[in-house]
# Entry
Amino acid sequence: MIHSEIGVSPGIAIGRAYVLPSSEWDIPERDLEEADLTEEIDKLLSGVRQSKTELESIRSDIRELIGEEEAGIFNAHLAILEDPIFLNEVREIMRLRASRAEHAVQEATDKFASMFELLDDDYMKERADDIRDVGNRLLKHLLGGGSEESPPMEAPYILVAKEVTPSRFVNLGPGNLLGIATVMGGKTSHTAIMARAMGIPMVSGIDGKLQRTIQTGDLLIVDGGEGRLLVNPTGSTVEEYQRRKERQQEERNSLQRIASCPPVTQDGRRLEILANISSLNELDRSIQEGIPGVGLFRTEFLFMDRSSVPGEEEQYRIYKEAVEKHRGNPLVFRALDIGGDKAISYIALPEEDNPSLGLRAVRILLARKDLFRVQLRAILRAGAYGPIRLLLPMVGSLDELREAKEVIRQVKEELRAEGAVFLDNIPVGIMIEVPSAAVLADLLAREVDFFSIGTNDLVQYVLAVDRMNEAVASLYEPFHPAVLRLIRHTAQAAADAGIPVGVCGELAGDPLALPLWLGLGIREISMSVQSCLPVKKALLESRADRCREVLEEAFRCQRAEEVKETLAKAWEDTSR
Ligand code: PEP
Ligand code: MG
# Structure
């Protein structure tokens, strides 16, 4: 039986199922006597204390086992537990309805979780899981701390569940997990984030009926890359997937062999291939893969999965750790790029009909200079430990650039006056991702140290195609001649001004685009960690002189399809 699910963590797992029983608590039906209220509230508070201690210990285990970012998920759980709105609601229910603490906790949990589930935003919907997770933990302690059932098998297994909360994931001991299949959860669910960080294949969105028919002990295949779950497959299917799994491993191993080769074409042109990361964990993975630097650190992800803005010291520690881990390799910190699809729950932004065209990135940094200053201070101080660069997102005019540079100047002056140690001559660059910036690249190039072309947004804004909207996905075309012309104009402006230009959008991870970078004299491209070695392989097989010829031909094309055909044809030629 094959079903189509969504893959939320890549890789293939083959193994026996362990079906997680849904946790239903047996709460004694007894109303509360007036006189018991104080006693019952004491019980509630003691349950809260026990839950907190437990969460703190899980948080420190996760920090050791996986990393700081994933441990942060439990900060969110602690914040829910400490939230006076939640606890007041529980107390009110107890007082008004003479309910026992357990009933009141269950009711308050349902109320808040349902509120989040109704929101029209996947990220917020997934926060409902966190609330239920916290509610279940509290109930467990109120009902005498009964331990959660552990898997009946010693051997590693594939976990099947309606949903897997982050703490259940931790309690089960991820070391024994071959794969995960759930009904609920998406790519941004915390469990998916942790599964990816640990390399555990996972699919979500499996049919609820199917989930109920799977028995513990059934043989399963999880294909997290293709988004498939196969139940009791035939022997030949298992063999086929076993071969695929081995092939994937071999491909990765063989690519690993080129990790240490210099990134040069057959005719000696060098093109730096760097990683895009959003956490220290991803940095570790990119270092493990031998990727010699970071072209884009999306710092806004450090602001997610928590309930308040990280302070200067906390940011400084993270940035400094990144710099130290990187031992002198390139490292580009992008200032907070929030707004648009990247909302942060505790930073209040107005409701907008058109968030991608609204208050986003540098526009927020200039409207909320308090946030910008704190981040700048932390980045500049971390810069004392190694060479880093600072990248400003979504700059669209000289005025915006100058205002941002003025804030940077003031922050440096402040640090100097305090006698702080920091990187005074930090190179400051801008993302070229808004059409006005690409058109004005010649003027902007005189006032910055480098450009980084963000094709993800550039394509969306040049073509007026929302990058998040499935309905117009077929119109989202990075090889559109209009996009290519703006990239060429930007590269030319950078060359004329004598500043370096890199590319950090997803297009950089497509080997088909290599002739563009080699032909336009771009020296650095960055992409998601998984794409680095495949792109490097293509680079090692190419010739820069051939790419230049091909590019001239591609620029004579009138349509994206022709551009792609031309590049592909040339690609075959260059790899011969
Ligand atoms: C881009 O827009 O190309 C980019 C790299 O930034 P993000 O995807 O974070 O918007
Ligand atoms: Mg962008």
